[in-house]
Amino acid sequence: MEQIQHDPSLRRARIAAEVRSELAIQKKTRAALSLAVTMSTYTLRRRLDGIQPFTMDELDSTTRFLGISLADFVARTEAVAS
């Protein structure tokens, strides 16, 4: 379990999945997120597909768009790993 928590590709995938999930729950579109965080749709797609990691600034902007604190969001992704 310890190795899984520190695997960057799994962490990236958990973060991407959590953002996709929250977008769906809130019925917000990727296009709206892209505009809100001033990121191209191509770049956002790579983040949401888990191909490229979100930067901390991007994740901060994303969680603000979703109305979730960054700390709560990170806690959620860590809880999924447990």
Written description of the protein model:
- This protein is mainly alpha-helical and 82 residues long.
- It is built from six helices and no strands.
- It is globular.
Question: Topology, please?
Answer:
Blueprint: H1 2-6, H2 8-26, H3 30-36, H4 41-48, H5 56-66, H6 70-81
Radius of gyration: 12 Å
How many individual helices?
A: 6
How would you sum up the major sheet?
none
| Structural class computed from helices and strand pairing | mainly alpha
Number of distinct beta strands = 0
The coarse silhouette is globular
State which percent range the strand residues make up: under 5%
Distance between the termini: 8 Å
Poorly predicted runs of 5 or more residues: none
Whole-number average pLDDT?
Answer: 89
Helix content: over 70%
Order of helices and strands: HHHHHH
Tell me briefly what this model is.
The protein has 82 residues and is mainly α. The chain has six helices and no strands.
Descriptive tags:
82 residues; mainly alpha
